[in-house]
TrEMBL record:
Domain tRNA (adenine(58)-N(1))-methyltransferase catalytic subunit TRM61 C-terminal, chain residue ranges per copy: 69-303
Protein name as catalogued: tRNA (adenine(58)-N(1))-methyltransferase
Gene3D superfamilies assigned: 3.10.330.20, Vaccinia Virus protein VP39
Biological processes, Gene Ontology terms: tRNA methylation
First-tier enzyme category under EC: transferase
Residues in coiled coil: none
InterPro entries associated with the record: SAM-dependent_MTases_sf, TRM61_C, tRNA_MeTrfase_Gcd14
Renumbered residue ranges of the record's region Disordered: 254-289
This protein's UniProt keywords: Methyltransferase, Nucleus, S-adenosyl-L-methionine, Transferase, tRNA processing
Enzyme Commission designation: 2.1.1.220
Similarity comment: Belongs to the class I-like SAM-binding methyltransferase superfamily. TRM61 family.
Catalytic activity annotation: adenosine(58) in tRNA + S-adenosyl-L-methionine = N(1)-methyladenosine(58) in tRNA + S-adenosyl-L-homocysteine + H(+)
Pfam families named among the record's database cross-references: GCD14
Length: 307
């Protein structure tokens, strides 16, 4: 996501320049993607921030407003881009994305085909995984949606690794120019089984396909079609549960009422009484967050059978 240093292909420029895209971090649930433009300003509840003050600073730095408020300027990684992009369709989030990239065995240099570009959340992570010598060809049947995704990839600096095309993969299949050339294929389609015969022609020997479907009936139909040309068929559901970690004071009394972990052992209580300790002990508590994301969809993977 960061601009490549042409003299060192494997290094990234860590200094913010005029025209760069940065993620302005206010808090974990409030971030914005801003293009740095000399002479422009960014305003929020913390005050006014001049873009000219950002130029030359390192990604990850804290910058101050005219009122003394502050924000952090973060590099636009695929993980952060997923949180700030425009939702033109339902998107995949980090839990599903990381699983997809791993199970599709995507490494630098791979050629990946994707159908169902949508908002481009997964596409940016696929592009980073194949960089610097690989490529992602992504297809969407909706022309306006494809154009907006193309603009986003230009904005976040990934356009050299991604080609966006307009095509109905369910009805037409993938272009024949990719026949036997793709290392991996990802499908996010309402009827993925219609595209699977084309996927089998596109994949290299031992290549892998992944299909994302929100309904189990779609998974069942897809698996029936996969059995004719694929093996090692597996379906997963990724459920992410986050925890809040904070320090809490424990109430120590004989009845142990109000204590989240019960009363202290009698031997410890006696020891504290003998030494005259009046300080209340503290403990690090881990509790599930109240808002937990549930079902997003099913991920079905399969490997092309070798002839």
């Amino acid at each position: 996501m960061l601009p490549f240093d042409q003299s060192k292909r494997n290094c990234f420029q860590r200094c913010i320049c005029d025209g760069d895209l940065v993620i302005v971090y206010e808090r974990h649930d409030n971030m914005k993607a801003i293009k740095v433009t000399n002479g422009s300003e960014f305003q929020n509840r913390f005050g006014v921030f001049k873009h000219s003050d950002w130029i030359g600073k390192s990604f990850g730095c804290k910058v101050l407003s005219n009122k003394g408020g502050f924000v952090y300027l973060l590099a636009p990684t695929p993980e952060l881009w997923t949180l700030v992009l425009s939702h033109r369709t339902q998107i995949l989030y980090i839990a599903d994305i990381s699983f997809v990239v791993t199970y599709l065995e995507i490494v630098p240099g791979c050629l990946v085909l994707e159908s169902g570009t949508g908002s481009g959340s997964l596409t940016t992570s696929l592009a980073r995984a194949v960089a610097p010598s690989g490529h992602v060809h992504t297809f969407d049947f909706h022309e306006q949606r494809a154009a907006l995704a193309r603009d986003d990839f230009e904005k976040n600096g990934m356009s050299s690794l991604i080609t966006v095309s307009v095509r109905d993969i369910q009805g037409e299949g993938f272009p024949e120019e990719f026949c036997g050339a793709a290392d991996s294929v990802f499908l996010d389609l309402p009827q993925p089984w219609l595209a699977l015969p084309s996927v089998a022609r596109m994949l290299k020997q031992d290549g892998i396909v992944c299909s994302f479907s929100p309904c189990i009936e779609q998974v069942q139909r897809s698996c029936e079609t996969l059995r004719s040309n694929f093996t090692d068929i597996r379906t997963f559901e990724i459920l992410l549960r986050t925890y809040e970690i904070r320090e809490e004071r424990l109430r120590v009394d004989d009845d142990s009422k109000g204590s989240p972990v019960g009363s202290l052992p009698r031997k410890r209580r006696q020891s504290e009484e003998n030494y005259g300790s009046t300080e209340k002990p503290s403990s690090i508590m881990a509790r599930p967050c109240r808002e937990t994301k549930g079902h997003t969809g099913y991920l079905t993977f399969a490997r092309l059978e070798c002839n």
